[in-house]
Every structure is written in structure tokens, then in C-alpha cells.
Automatic annotation (TrEMBL):
<feature type="transmembrane region" description="Helical">
    <location>
        <begin position="287"/>
        <end position="314"/>
    </location>
</feature>
<protein>
    <recommendedName>
        <fullName>Sulfotransferase</fullName>
    </recommendedName>
</protein>
<dbReference type="Pfam" id="PF17784">
    <property type="entry name" value="Sulfotransfer_4"/>
</dbReference>
<dbReference type="InterPro" id="IPR027417">
    <property type="entry name" value="P-loop_NTPase"/>
</dbReference>
<feature type="region of interest" description="Disordered">
    <location>
        <begin position="85"/>
        <end position="107"/>
    </location>
</feature>
<dbReference type="InterPro" id="IPR040632">
    <property type="entry name" value="Sulfotransfer_4"/>
</dbReference>
<keyword id="KW-0472">Membrane</keyword>
<keyword id="KW-0812">Transmembrane</keyword>
<keyword id="KW-1133">Transmembrane helix</keyword>
Length: 320
């Protein structure tokens, strides 16, 4: 550096890990099958199932939503850490008015990281991920819109609605925080974010722009068009988990097929997920009964305590 030259400002976060593969398809386009395939090829792959049950991951991605909306840098090290709880310092995003990054705690240097991402929440950050990893190979899992919409409407959407309806009373909230914050992330990134609260409007889901501060994020067909235009030639594979297999994927990634010639994975089909959704529905109903019963019990306890208190006061007055 020459005399008088100012040093560059320090980076807000340590250098992020480099992604090798970015999955650019929405959930229900075969992302779980692609996750399984990439892991069999030796990648360490992030998917929404990696977020569930990991409070640090939920907090990190919710913070990323707030950071992006406020124009703050994103902490990719925290977002792509495979540690179960990447931060105990932050359990919710910082207010948008804050000038400091909401994600203020990063993993230790010994932490391992994902080197591939698919599905939500990462697909909502496709543009930022590609900018941070310009050499990454991009796999766009494809599915006809009508087939995709019918599947999503039977699976992830009703599960998200049921999750959003889980509202424990304040005195039970700490025991359900990880669950409610997980579904809050769903709402912020997917149903309220990407689809602008209008997923049930089929044509909006097909073409319209998003909302919730995500700066013109596109919905299904526009998202596909954006991926095609944003990714440099030679870095994009459009891939159908139903019609394609190991051949096109391995040729694109430059990796040999898994040993033993296993069939290409086909995970989490609509019927399988619909059974999961029905199980979630039953569990949500039981939780609603639990919350109602606990509220009734609390009300009864408060009323009993009030009666006893009044009686004690009356008795005391009569004794004087």
C-alpha cells in the first residue's frame, strides 16, 4: 500500500465458505431428491429439513431476512454452518432500524459448513448466493407449474398454515418457541414473502411479484426466467428428478456416479408428504385443545384464587 493510501474498511464478517452447488428450484420441484443425490455424490447439502429443530439456523435465516431488508451484509458463515445451534446470542432478528448486522455471532473456525444448498430458505436468497459464489454450479430443478402448484397446495402450504396457527398462550410460549419461530421463518420467506400472502391466488403464484420487503422477488415462472438469465452460460443445469437421472447431473458436476449404481433417489412425493400433512393436522388440533384446556384451567385457578382472596378479606373484616 502506497504512502497516504487508506486501508480498506474491515469486512463485517470473516470470509464466507464457498458454495460448490446452488439449487435454484422452489420446494416441491424435487429438492429433497436432489439433496439426497448431492449427498451421495459427496457434497454436504443444506435444505429446509436442516433448519427444523436447529434454533440457531432458524434465528440465522430470520436475521438474514431482516439484514437484507435493512441493506445490511449477510453473514454467510453463520447461515451455512452445520452446527445445530450457531448462535445463542440472538434468538430473533434485530429491529430493521438497527445499523448493526442482526446476525452478530458467527461459528468458530473449527465449524464445518455446507457446500451445496437446495430448497427454501436458500432459494429465497438465490441472487445473493450467486453474487457471493459466482463460480458455483447452479441446478434448477424443474416442474410444470400446474403440477407444482397442485403439489404445493396439498403439502407445504397447508403445513405452513397449520404451523402459523400454533399460538401458545404466553405462559407456554417458551416451550414452543423453536416450533413457532420455525413457522415464522416459513411465513417471512415463503407465504408472506415470496408469494406476498397470495399463494391461494393461482395466477399470482404463477407470475406475480412478491412483497414483504423482498424487493420484487418473483414467483414461479418469473423466478425460473430470472435464474436462466442470471446464471452465466455453462453454469446452469435444468434438471427434472423424474425424467433425468445420474447421467446429466454427474456430467454437469464432473463427478462419477455413486458406487454400486444405485437408482436415482425419488424422495418425498406428494402422497407421502400429504400423509405427513395429515399427521401435522392431527397434532395441531391436539395442541389447540391443550392450549384451550390450559387457558381454562388457568382461568379457573385465577377465579378460585380470587374467590378465596375475597372470602379471606370478608372474613378478616368480620373478625375486626
Amino acid at each position: 500500500m502506497s504512502a497516504g493510501e487508506q486501508p480498506p474498511p474491515p469486512a463485517p464478517f470473516p470470509a464466507p465458505p464457498r458454495l460448490k452447488v446452488i439449487g435454484a428450484g422452489f420446494g416441491r420441484t424435487g429438492t429433497l431428491s436432489l439433496l439426497t443425490a448431492l449427498n451421495q455424490l459427496g457434497y454436504k447439502t443444506h435444505h429446509m429439513i436442516e433448519v427444523f429443530g436447529k434454533p440457531g439456523q432458524v434465528a440465522a435465516w430470520r436475521a438474514a431476512v431482516a439484514d437484507r431488508a435493512a441493506g445490511r451484509p449477510l453473514d454467510w458463515r453463520r447461515l451455512l454452518s452445520d452446527t445445530a445451534d450457531t448462535s445463542t446470542a440472538a434468538s430473533s432478528p434485530a429491529p430493521p432500524s438497527s445499523s448493526a448486522p442482526a446476525s452478530s455471532s458467527s461459528p468458530s473456525p473449527s465449524t464445518s459448513f455446507y457446500d451445496a444448498v437446495v430448497d427454501w430458505p436458500s432459494v429465497a436468497f438465490f441472487r445473493e448466493l450467486l453474487a457471493a459464489n459466482p463460480d458455483a454450479q447452479v441446478v434448477l430443478t424443474t416442474r410444470d407449474f400446474d403440477s407444482w402448484y397442485a403439489s404445493a397446495a396439498r403439502t407445504i402450504y397447508p403445513v405452513g398454515r397449520m404451523g402459523a396457527a400454533i399460538r401458545p398462550p404466553p405462559y407456554l410460549a417458551p416451550w414452543f418457541r423453536s416450533l413457532t419461530e420455525f413457522f415464522a421463518l416459513h411465513e417471512e420467506l415463503m407465504w408472506g414473502g415470496t408469494f406476498g400472502g397470495k399463494f391461494e391466488d393461482r395466477e399470482h403464484a404463477r407470475k406475480a411479484g412478491g412483497a414483504c420487503g423482498l424487493d420484487d422477488d418473483k414467483v414461479y415462472e418469473a423466478h425460473v426466467a430470472e435464474v436462466r438469465s442470471a446464471v452465466p452460460p455453462g453454469q446452469l443445469l435444468e434438471f427434472s428428478v423424474v425424467c433425468d437421472g445420474w447421467g446429466p447431473l454427474c456430467a454437469f458436476l464432473g463427478r462419477p456416479p455413486p458406487a454400486g449404481d444405485p437408482p436415482f433417489p425419488h424422495e418425498n412425493d406428494t402422497a407421502e408428504f400429504a400423509r405427513f400433512a395429515e399427521d401435522m393436522r392431527r397434532r395441531a388440533k391436539r395442541l389447540a385443545v391443550l392450549f384451550a384446556a390450559s387457558n381454562a384451567a388457568l382461568a379457573a385457578a385465577v377465579a378460585t384464587a380470587a374467590v378465596l382472596l375475597v372470602n379471606a378479606v370478608v372474613h378478616r373484616r368480620h373478625a375486626l
